[in-house]
Amino acid sequence: MRDAGHPRRSIGHSTNMVGRSPDWLASAGFNDAPEPLHIWGVREMNPSLFAMLDRAGDPAEAGAAFLAYMMAMFGIDPEQRDEGAGGRRFRASFLRLIQGWSFDSNGPEGAVLKGWVESRFGLCPSFHKAIIDEAAGPAWAAYVDEKMASRFHANAIWVQLDLLFEFCQWAVARFAFPGQTHLTLFRGVNAFDAHGIAEWTGGRGAVVRLNNLVSFTSDREVADCFGDRILTVRVPLCKVLWFGGLLPSHPLRGEGEVLAVGGDFRVSADYV
Length: 272
Hints:
alpha+beta, 10 helices, globular
């Protein structure tokens, strides 16, 4: 798929905004037996949104309600989603970030999304344009420069992403995957042996460290297009930020694409 994790020293924070140790949150143990994750204060500070969502009769109605709320709160009406459209000032939006990620997860939008994961979950990226293995290195400095670009931080962008995550978690439980804890997903990779292999578990099995934000697909044939090895992964639903069908119209190109917080995952690695 689009970018790879690496086995280098973990760079993380001691605290986060979800009430779980970052080391535990990133571990294969957590991914095997996940616990609910919620960003502190988001639902409590937006009661009208979740009251409105609770009245939705189906996923499309819920998605439309969420978009209406976000447009009202952050001024991201259609004319303001693109820079310079209609002579209006560019307003950063979560939609623009997701769209940017779909084209290049190592671009500026990808840096902002990875920065949000770092801030909220305490997990730093292991890759952005290059391997990040030390906080003082040039790869880290380049990532920080992009993640803090003022172009994307003029409209409470991380707050928008907080709301997107909480809406996604609400939709997972209410409509999309009620009663489930994991999704079986796929990711295509090249040069698998150079990835963050923490442990070989026998046969084609391994524990692999993926980046702090990762794209997966629910369609194995799509994963075939992105590498010579296919990773089959059980991804905890509590880590999912985005999945196809979350919104009535969406900027990710693949219907089966899932965007999730990363860490160490048990995988089965098969040749294409």
